[in-house]
Amino acid sequence: MIKTKKKSAGKSSVSSYKTKLKIASDIGIKLDGTMSLRGILNKLRHLKTKNGKNYSSSSIRLFMAAFQWKINSDGIVNENINKLKKGISNKIRKINKEIAAEVAENGLVRNQQKNYIDWDVVLKIYEKVKNNKELSQENYKDYLLLSLYIKFGAVRRIADFHDMYITNRIKKDIVNNYYVRQKNPMFIFNKYKTKYKYLTQKINVPDELNEIITTYIDTYNIIGTLLNMTESAMKSRIKLIFRRYIDKDIGVNILRHSFITYEMRKMNHKEKTELAVKMGHSNVMQSIYEKKTVVDPIKIKNNKKHITKIGRQKIYGTDEEKKKAQLDAKRKWRKKNSEKIKEYNKQYYKNVVD
């Protein structure tokens, strides 16, 4: 069961728009009607990323969406503004068609080809994670994390779960996301990318997933948020889970592509529309997500334990863990260099007195 209310720009989208608008302002782009769309695009074409590369079509589309949002928010209406708005809308549609054509032709784009895996492989890895869930709390948390994407019946974006609060009843709050622990448990999504389209979503939690969640909460006395992880930590953790078994960087975006490709093979139009609502995106975006490329068979490794780093890169589950580790590192450094610090302080105060 999916219930939907209506309408305002998503918080994460607004944040992205403001970042793009700041970049645009810094290179002299004006949205007051004094600059044509051609002039705006010429400036964007010369813009480089931090790595010195040109912006992708998807990034240009995000700039266009930000400009559209800014113009609508300002509420200024005149002939030049209306012409600019129409041009921006046409440009977004054109980019969408170009991206869809590229995907239709190649199946996968950019580094997706290198990291893409079929959903069958995802399910095999999930079974391995499930078999190791009793080894520790962290192993069970890995199992819960993957279950949210594999047993829900849709792969939501990462921000939809990272800050999800546990509650025993439906709240009037329309800002945060909730797991409601009641007779008919549900997820309530108030904070997600396409809230402007679908508004507040109330979606029933499948029985199997609900049992996994309640076991985790009861066994480890979880209160507050379900995962207690930052969005960044959650992204890293998902990659680490898959790294235990395959040499690929698998994030939620790849999982969304893989799941849709797997599911849409057996769906009619009505079912595809229902899936798009549950996934939190449009039918058009869903068709772009669907892949047609066959990838090479993947050898799955058999590591059991939860891991916290790749090479020298340490991953922390929460901000508190990261701060504690930083403080511990400072203490160790001070202890190791105590004599040097004393000598430095002695010399410093001597110079001050002199």
Can you offer a commentary on this structure?
By secondary structure, the chain is α+β, with helices and mostly antiparallel strands. The chain folds into three domains: 97 residues, no CATH class; 198 residues, Intergrase catalytic core (hpI Integrase, Chain A, Orthogonal Bundle), CATH 1.10.443; 25 residues. It contains 16 helices and seven strands. β3 and β4 form a beta hairpin. α1 packs across α3, α3 runs antiparallel to α4 and α7 runs antiparallel to α10. The N and C termini lie far apart (78 Å). The N terminus is likely disordered.
Helix content: 55-70%
Tell me the major beta sheet: 5 strands, mixed
The count of β-strands is: 7
The secondary-structure element order is EHHHHHHHHEEEHEHHHHHEEHH
Mean pLDDT: 81
Low-confidence stretches: 3-7
CATH architecture heading of the largest domain: Orthogonal Bundle
The CATH class name of the largest domain reads Mainly Alpha
The helix-and-strand class reads alpha+beta
CATH superfamily of the largest domain: Intergrase catalytic core
Count of DSSP H/I helices? 16
- CATH names the topology of the largest domain as hpI Integrase, Chain A
* Amino-to-carboxy terminus distance: 78 Å
Rounded radius of gyration (Å): 24 Å
Q: Give the count of structural domains.
A: 3
